[in-house]
Amino acid sequence: MVDFARVQKELQECSRDIEASGITVSPKADNLARLIGFIPGPIGTPYEGGTFQIDISLPDGYPFAPPKMRFATKVCQSGAICLDILKDQWSPALTLKTALLSVQALLSAPEPDDPQDAVVAQQYLREYQTFVTTARYWTETFAKASSLGVEEKVQKLVEMGFTDALVRSALEATGGDENLALEKLCSG
């Protein structure tokens, strides 16, 4: 069974540190086993300036079993994340925040020898400039406009006194429509 007290503690830790890390995590529709994370693109990479959404599912054994994470924002063809700590190197001492920081680090230093997407890995190794150009294009197209728009909506609604988690849930439930989300938040 998921340790929901720990999950709530981890969500609070992420909220306290948002200014320093830029990482946010919130529940999807008030379900602590289904979360949405956001990480900023690392500086000095083709992903710089982007905000990347990551879907997170917590298995029954969490924190003794690793969370399942995949990019919702297009970064590669599949969105899958190949990271050892999300598999056999997971430890209950790790947190959602450390896992998201590791995903962010993976954007800074991809592992082409252990890829999730073999085509992208080959491009990284053999045609690096094409890899960079493609990654920048995907960042501009998928991680800047839509994600920043969402973040601006979240910020506006949070400034009205609603919690980050409730705002994200309402925006998700209304397909990102800020006015409908506000109506949903006000109606309780």
Automatic annotation (TrEMBL):
<keyword id="KW-0833">Ubl conjugation pathway</keyword>
<dbReference type="InterPro" id="IPR000608">
    <property type="entry name" value="UBC"/>
</dbReference>
<dbReference type="GO" id="GO:0005524">
    <property type="term" value="F:ATP binding"/>
</dbReference>
<dbReference type="Pfam" id="PF00627">
    <property type="entry name" value="UBA"/>
</dbReference>
<dbReference type="InterPro" id="IPR009060">
    <property type="entry name" value="UBA-like_sf"/>
</dbReference>
<keyword id="KW-0067">ATP-binding</keyword>
<dbReference type="Pfam" id="PF00179">
    <property type="entry name" value="UQ_con"/>
</dbReference>
<dbReference type="GO" id="GO:0061631">
    <property type="term" value="F:ubiquitin conjugating enzyme activity"/>
</dbReference>
<keyword id="KW-0808">Transferase</keyword>
<feature type="domain" description="UBC core">
    <location>
        <begin position="2"/>
        <end position="144"/>
    </location>
</feature>
<feature type="domain" description="UBA">
    <location>
        <begin position="149"/>
        <end position="188"/>
    </location>
</feature>
<dbReference type="InterPro" id="IPR041974">
    <property type="entry name" value="UBC27_UBA"/>
</dbReference>
<dbReference type="InterPro" id="IPR015940">
    <property type="entry name" value="UBA"/>
</dbReference>
<dbReference type="InterPro" id="IPR016135">
    <property type="entry name" value="UBQ-conjugating_enzyme/RWD"/>
</dbReference>
<keyword id="KW-0547">Nucleotide-binding</keyword>
<protein>
    <recommendedName>
        <fullName>E2 ubiquitin-conjugating enzyme</fullName>
        <ecNumber>2.3.2.23</ecNumber>
    </recommendedName>
</protein>
